[in-house]
Design brief:
Blueprint: H1 10-22, H2 26-34, E1 40-41, H3 42-48, H4 53-65, E2 69-74, E3 77-82, H5 92-102, H6 109-133, H7 137-144, H8 151-160, E4 168-172, H9 180-186, E5 189-194, H10 197-210, E6 215-219, E7 230-236, H11 245-253, E8 256-267, H12 274-279, H13 288-297, E9 301-309, E10 315-322
Parallel strand pairs: 4-5, 4-7, 5-6, 7-8
Antiparallel strand pairs: 1-3, 2-3, 8-10, 9-10
Length: about 325
C-alpha cells in the first residue's frame, strides 16, 4: 500500500531545523546563557570558553543562522548579543522557549571566572583612561554631550518626583562633581561613588568650592556593596563606561529604597566608534529596550522618559525607574 507523504513547506522546516541544530550543542547553549545580559567579541568568547577563534566563529555562525544572536560592528570588531524572539513570526515561540530554558542554566565555574576576568579588564581599562585624562574631563565630555545639554531635563524630571525633605541621593560616577551641587540643594544627604581616585579628587575640589557640607565622597566600584540604600540613585552618562552594565543596574537597583527611583541619563545606541578611544567608552550607547529589560529584571517599574537630540548626531535618553512602594526586597 502506497502512503501519500504530506507536503511540507521546506522554508518553514528549515527555520525550525536551524533552531534545533543551534540548540543541540552544550557549548552553544552556554554561549547563549553568557550573552543573556552582555555583549562580547569573538576573541572574548573564545577566551571565555577556552576554544580557538575559528571554533568559536563556527558556533557563532550556527547561532546567527538560526537568528539566535545578533551582531554589531564597532570599528574593526564585531560584537555578539542575544537576539530577542519575535513571537508573532514562525519559530518565535520555539526561540522564546529555548531562551527561557537557557536562562535556567548555571554557567560552569571556570566560565564564570573567565567572564569576570574579561569584565575586570574592561573596568581596568576604563579606570586607567580616567586616571590619565582626568584633567581633560570637561573637554572630553564636550566631544559628545556636556552636562549643560541635559542638566535641565534631568532636573525637571528629578523635581517632578517630589522627594521629601529628609531624602537621600546616591550619585554613581560624579565625574568632576558638576551635578553634586544640584543634588545637594534637593536632598538632605548626598553620597557620591567613583572608582577613580583622580576623578574623585576633582569632585572633592568641586565640593570645596561650593562649600557642600552634606556630600560624602567614597572610592568604590559600581558593583561593590554599599552600606545603605537611597531614595534616588543617579547615573549621568556613566553606564557606557561600566564593564557589565546589566549587572551594575541590578546591583544599583538593590540600593533604591521602596518607593524610590533609579535615574539614568545615557546615550542611545550609536555607531560612532571613535568614542571608544577618544572618550573611554566601553559601550556605544544602549537601546531603549535594553535599559527597560534590565530594570524590569531588577524589580523596577518604568517611569518617565525623555529624549534629547544633539546636533552632533547623538541622542540622549533620560530614564526613570521606580521601586514599588511596598517592595521590601531592596538591600
Amino acid at each position: 500500500m502506497n502512503l501519500r507523504v504530506p507536503a511540507i513547506r521546506h522554508d518553514d522546516c528549515d527555520e525550525l531545523a536551524a533552531l534545533c541544530k543551534a540548540g543541540g550543542d552544550p557549548l552553544r547553549l552556554n554561549v547563549l546563557r553568557a550573552l543573556a545580559n552582555d555583549s562580547f567579541g569573538v576573541l572574548e568568547l573564545a577566551r571565555i570558553f577556552a576554544i580557538g577563534q575559528s571554533g568559536m566563529s563556527h558556533h557563532l555562525k550556527v547561532l546567527a543562522q538560526a537568528e539566535l544572536v545578533a551582531t554589531r560592528r564597532e570599528g574593526n570588531a564585531i560584537f555578539y548579543r542575544r537576539a530577542l524572539p519575535h513571537l508573532d513570526v514562525f519559530g518565535g515561540q520555539l526561540h522564546s522557549a529555548l531562551l527561557d530554558e537557557v536562562d535556567t542554566l548555571s554557567l560552569p565555574a571556570d566560565v564564570q571566572a573567565r567572564i569576570a576576568e574579561v569584565h575586570g579588564q574592561r573596568a581596568a581599562a576604563s579606570q586607567d583612561f580616567f586616571t590619565r585624562t582626568a584633567e581633560k574631563f570637561p573637554a572630553q565630555q564636550d566631544l559628545i554631550a556636556s552636562l549643560t545639554q541635559y542638566r535641565d531635563s534631568v532636573l525637571s524630571l528629578l523635581d517632578a518626583l517630589g522627594f521629601g525633605a529628609d531624602a537621600t541621593a546616591l550619585e554613581v560616577g560624579p565625574g568632576d562633581g558638576s551635578f553634586l551641587p544640584e543634588l545637594a540643594r534637593r536632598f538632605k544627604r548626598v553620597i557620591a561613588l567613583d572608582n577613580s581616585p583622580a576623578m574623585l579628587e576633582l569632585a572633592r575640589l568641586a565640593c570645596e568650592r561650593q562649600a557642600l557640607s552634606n556630600v560624602e565622597l567614597h572610592q568604590a566600584d559600581a558593583l561593590e556593596a554599599v552600606g545603605e540604600c537611597a531614595d534616588c540613585v543617579v547615573l549621568n552618562m556613566v553606564l557606557h563606561h561600566l564593564a557589565a552594565p546589566a549587572d551594575a543596574m541590578k546591583h544599583l537597583a538593590g540600593l533604591v529604597k521602596a518607593g524610590g527611583s533609579l535615574l539614568i541619563t545615557e546615550l542611545c545606541s550609536h555607531n560612532q566608534s571613535w568614542a571608544r578611544e577618544a572618550c573611554g567608552d566601553l559601550w556605544l550607547g544602549f537601546e531603549q529596550d535594553d535599559l527597560a529589560r534590565w530594570a524590569a529584571a531588577a524589580g523596577l517599574l518604568p517611569g518617565e522618559s525623555l529624549y534629547i537630540g544633539l546636533r552632533n548626531g547623538f541622542q540622549i535618553q533620560v530614564r526613570q525607574f521606580q521601586r514599588p512602594a511596598g517592595d521590601t526586597h531592596h538591600r
